[in-house]
Amino acid sequence: MSIPKQINPDLVKERKNATFDVEELSALIYDGDDKLQLKRLVEDELYADLPDPIELDYLSYEDVYNRTVEQTVSAIKKLRALQERLNPGGTEIYPALMTGPPGLTLMPGGTPLAVHILMFTRALKNQGTPEQFEKFGRRANNCEILGTYAQTELGHGTYLRGLETRADYDRRTDEFVLNTPTLTSYKWWPGGLGNSVNYCIVVAQLYIDDKPKGLQLFVLQVRDEQTHKPLPGIDIGDIGKKIGLQAVNNGYLGLTNVRIPRTNMLMKNSKVLPDGTFVKSPVSQLAYFPMVFVRCMVVLVNSGLHAMAATITTRYSAVRRQSPIKQDAPEPQVLDHVTQQMKVVPEIATVIAYRLAGLKLIKMYEETATAVNSSDYSRLPELHALACTLKASCTYDSSFGIERLRLACGGHGYLASANLGNIFTWATAACTYEGENSVLYLQVGKILLKTWADMLSGKPLMPTMAYLGECASWSEFPYWTGDWQCLVQALQYAATNKTRIAGNSYSRRLESGLSSPEAFNATGIELTQAAELHGRAFVANTFFEEVTMQNSGKRSAALNNLLENLLEFYLVHTVQRHMADILRFIPLTEDHLTSLQFRLETVLAALRPNLVAICDAFDLHDKVLNSVLGCYDGNVYERIFAAAKKSPLNQKDVAASFEQHLKPFMKSNL
After folding, report:
1. Which of 652, 653, 635, 617 is nearest to 27 (CA)?
2. What 8-state DSSP symbol labels residue 446?
3. Rounded to whole angstroms, how far apart are CA atoms 544 and 667?
4. Which one from 175, 434, 546, 568 is the annotated catalytic residue?
């Protein structure tokens, strides 16, 4: 059946009632109107001839992979041509487009070349010498060779020091000998490794004269460039079907006495000389810098996925009518129910909060990368701490938020054609890749312990942790005003005191005789709680500064008013979520708590007329959303029915199983 071209009148009404300029908010969300217009230009060209993505739901595992390879090649060619036309020789536009919501549109099953684009080529550039980049990097940039980043093993993931893959240096031949000596040392999970790539960067323990020298990065060819067959000593393949992202082609890799030239170790930082002399990197964390970049990108990608789900659910909630609020009145829009608003608005506000924090984090990464290139490594610890905590909190918040949004769509949210299931699997996968979230919080907890010790000894603190020193100097929390700065300080004060308590617990355990690792493990719950609060305080403060200090005079009064309402909601809601921690340190009264609840309900009502328009400002193309529930025109029921008609089971009047099984069964006199 054809879909009506007119827009659902409920959505027309919602957009007419909006109090702000959607375009102005879109420009803010995309960090400038120029970037917004570039995004739209790219989308117009990329999405013109895409196949119906619903077909993917009915293909076999192998066919999903094969179709996605075709889609990936097509997407890269289009993006490269667009790059040459719009910005030849300039900043590449396709890495971000290949991974976030646009990537989900171009390759609904995921892409087996995401790691090639985001990590393999970047590691060759940032970790290799100029000679190594000439040898491997330029070919990788031109996709003459395709690679992945082989770090995680079957038996070890985030605990990198436990990786078992070995690279032993052989002076006689000036080669490294690579081995995966146990089943658990097999590389496991690298995207594209299964069937797509012919090279990889292997993260392995370097041994010289059987003495360990730590983890290093090695370029390894795994398949013949002409036949694509595995090379001798290489055991390689696909790890099998997952709960989502079927076409990412995650793979395994086993190595048996595989020899590579000494010059295949990436040696911009650490080096092995021909005589076996090992030259240490000036900073060991440089080996993990490609992973830090991906963690920064994850914040933007997952906030984009979260925005997709929020848009779908908000539009559907404006079209769906159910359960009269007033007796004998017509069924209202579901979005008029306050309980539905409390399912939607927290997610919308969270999307914007993480979008702003993610943009700030990416800028910090770029500044740090520039400093590193000048041999200034002072910014690395702060970037590492922020990337860890924001990656963890953003992926948790988006995963649980997307599921809440799916549930808010009732039964229709369970349809594959609603696309909320696919969005969820993309988001939740990020909770474990590039560092499992609990482990990342523990890493941040370790940094907080060190920062606390630095503060006590009077050492300067990194800027994003400077609040620890300020809050620790207060004998008690300053007078509770409840204004925005007060709410941000309440989160910072709670984070500070959780850090103090964790530090005291850790010290007591050391004094009781536990070793440092044992004491750290025993303090893990308190440390992860402190780390989470630190991240939430950063996001809240970033949102607060954006609304109140940065560029507010350049925005219209209407947009400022909207952002202030979103900030009000986000801060009040976040404080309420962490009220147990706040009440532990700040003696709030019942009147204070009642006031917060009143403010929440008041701002919820103030935001209600703008909810659809805010989601419009996320500027998500219908082909990006790929949802029968969330299209711009709001013709939900027509689209649901049209998608159902495409089911293979509806292509015949009678399924084969009727004659084969059901009919004999019904006549068997059971």
Report:
1. 617
2. H
3. 71
4. 434
- Is residue 23 one of the residues assigned to a domain? no
Interatomic CA distance for residues 116 and 122, integer angstroms: 9
Q: How many residues does the chain have?
A: 670
pTM exceeds 0.85: yes
- Taking the C-alpha atoms of residue 94 and residue 86, their distance in angstroms, rounded to an integer, is 12
Residue 379 lies in a domain: no
pLDDT tens digit string along 94-116? Answer: 665 666 777 788 888 888 998 99
- CB-facing half-sphere around the CA of 616: CA atoms within 13 A: 20
What DSSP assignment string belongs to 166-198?
EEEEETTTTEEEEE--SGGGSEE--TTTTTT-S
End-to-end CA distance of the chain: 41
- Domain extent for 253: 119-281
Task: Report the C-alpha gap between 471 and 467 in whole angstroms.
Answer: 6
Q: Which of 294, 397, 385, 390 is nearest to 348 (CA)?
A: 397
Active site residue 434: yes
DSSP string, 80-100: HHHHHHHSTTS--SHHHHTTS
- H/E stretch holding 220 reads strand 211-221
Whether 537 is in a domain gets the answer: yes
Give CA torsion, residues 154, 69, 100, 409, to 10 deg. Answer: -90
Contact 197, 147 (CB under 8 A): yes
Adjacent-strand bridge partners of 212? 207
Domain boundary among 553, 588, 623: 588
Q: pLDDT (tens digit, 9 = 90+) per residue, 143-177?
A: 999 999 999 999 998 888 899 999 999 999 999 99
Question: Which amino acid is located at 50 in the chain?
Answer: L
Query: Six-digit token pair at 608?
Result: 């209600």
Give the separation between CA 265 and CA 377, rounded to whole angstroms.
Answer: 22
- Phi-psi label, residue 634: left if phi above 0, alpha if psi -120 to 50, beta otherwise: left
Which CATH number does the domain housing residue 476 bear? 1.20.140
Instruction: Please state the domain count of the chain.
Output: 2
% helix / strand / coil in the chain, to the nearest 5? 60, 10, 30
The helix (run of H) or strand (run of E) holding residue 450 is helix 437-456
